[in-house]
């Protein structure tokens, strides 16, 4: 009789232990009376390596580590002398090309047309004179008075005058017609190329000033004034404060009860009484083993899914890597996912 009794006692104890373990597990995972899901993770944010698009000697850095910067704020500069000289050179070349285009578009000046007409009139007079001389000498030869050589010379002079008149008439036609359309289009193309070169030079000059691409906190000064910089060499490291999220890990059994857009509360050990408003913004589609630096009620060998809980931090109190506790009310319906952090946190 003792063996069945002992067996029953052992089974009862195992059942009690299993029930207690299940209660503890569900309580720690938010399935207790308050129906909250508690996740544990660390504050995370994006970081940007800031480089100059130009190369040169670093002239000045206007910020220090830990400074909060605003989007568009000037952070650093390189020596702009060479870029300014290049811009002035291109501006002068552009001015010359524009003047050439204006000259072609304006056409031939009236004075040039008048000069061409005067040359035609002079050629006509010369042709008349050489024609009269030739006719006179030809009559003398017929009566055996003049020489044939004089007649030949007069004929050659008359032909030269005739061709000269034809050339002057063509020059007058060109002057009246003005520049060719192809020449004007080519000049316009040269002006456009000059303007593009000037725009590029202005951009290169602007690239000697490094500005913040977004709001953030300066994390590191990699170079110092006097160093040579290039587009491939980072100068500063900027931690972006928007978006800001807590990277946590959710056990697989809770995936069916959470969804993007669900409201969340975030707490930290450094400010236990402070509650930061947030929402569930991302659930990883890929399972992974629990990281060793994250505490979960599951065993270390259990698979979990990374989640991102975006946080409103209007006072700038959260820091990269800070441990945080996330509480999600599983009874509240999820808002539409993809909400903008700035619009949500603006109410803070």
Written overview of the protein:
By secondary structure, the protein is of the alpha+beta class. The chain has 3 domains: 33-45 and 241-345, Efflux pump adaptor protein, beta barrel domain (Elongation Factor Tu (Ef-tu), domain 3), CATH 2.40.30.170; 48-78 and 210-236, Beta Barrel (OB fold (Dihydrolipoamide Acetyltransferase, E2P)), CATH 2.40.50.100; 86-203. The chain is built from 6 helices and 12 strands. The chain has helices at residues 2-28, 81-106, 110-142, 148-177, 181-206, 341-345; strands at 36-50, 56-61, 68-69, 74-78, 209-211, 216-221, 228-229, 236-251, 263-268, 276-289, 303-311, 323-329. The chain has a 6-stranded antiparallel barrel. It is rod-shaped and about 170 Å long. Residues 23-33 have low confidence and may be disordered.
């Amino acid at each position: 009789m003792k063996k069945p009794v002992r067996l029953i006692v052992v089974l009862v104890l195992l059942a009690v232990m299993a029930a207690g373990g299940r209660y503890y597990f569900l309580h720690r995972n938010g399935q207790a009376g308050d129906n909250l899901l508690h996740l544990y993770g660390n504050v995370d944010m994006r970081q940007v390596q800031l480089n100059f698009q130009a190369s040169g000697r670093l002239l000045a850095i206007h910020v220090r580590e830990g400074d909060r910067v605003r989007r568009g704020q000037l952070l650093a500069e390189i020596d702009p002398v060479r870029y300014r000289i290049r811009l002035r050179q291109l501006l002068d070349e552009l001015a010359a090309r524009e003047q050439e285009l204006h000259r072609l578009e304006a056409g031939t000046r009236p004075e040039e047309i008048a000069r061409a007409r005067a040359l035609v009139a002079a050629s006509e007079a010369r042709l008349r004179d050489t024609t009269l001389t030739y006719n006179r000498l030809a009559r003398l030869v017929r009566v055996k008075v003049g020489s044939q050589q004089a007649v030949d010379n007069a004929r050659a002079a008359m032909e030269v005058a005739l061709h000269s008149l034809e050339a002057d008439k063509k020059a007058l036609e060109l002057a009246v017609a003005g520049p060719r359309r192809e020449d004007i289009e080519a000049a316009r193309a040269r002006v456009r190329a000059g303007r593009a070169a000037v725009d590029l030079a202005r951009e290169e000059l602007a690239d000697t000033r490094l500005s913040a691409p977004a709001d953030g906190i300066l994390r590191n000064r990699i170079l110092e004034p006097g160093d040579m910089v290039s587009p491939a060499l980072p100068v500063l490291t900027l931690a972006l404060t928007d978006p800001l999220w807590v990277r946590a890990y959710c056990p697989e059994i809770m995936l069916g009860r959470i969804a993007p857009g669900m409201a969340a509360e975030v707490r930290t050990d450094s400010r236990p009484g402070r509650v930061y408003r947030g929402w569930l913004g991302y659930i990883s589609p890929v399972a992974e083993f629990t990281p060793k630096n994250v505490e979960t009620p599951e065993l270390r060998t259990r698979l979990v899914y990374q989640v991102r809980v975006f946080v409103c931090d209007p006072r700038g109190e959260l820091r990269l890597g800070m441990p945080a506790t996330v509480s999600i009310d599983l009874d509240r319906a999820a808002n539409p996912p993809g909400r903008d952090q700035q619009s949500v946190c603006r109410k803070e």
